[in-house]
Amino acid sequence: MRKMWVDYAKAFGIILVVFGHVNRGLFNSGIFTSTEIYHSLDNVI
To answer: pTM of the predicted model, to two decimals?
Structure first.
């Protein structure tokens, strides 16, 4: 029997990875210019 919490933890991890890639992409393209917020979010993830 599968443990549901493992699936939820994987889903949460995938969401964090996608959010991190979007955050870096926006920052590197110049759309997201606040370095303070960028680094704070990057450190949390």
So the answer is: 0.73
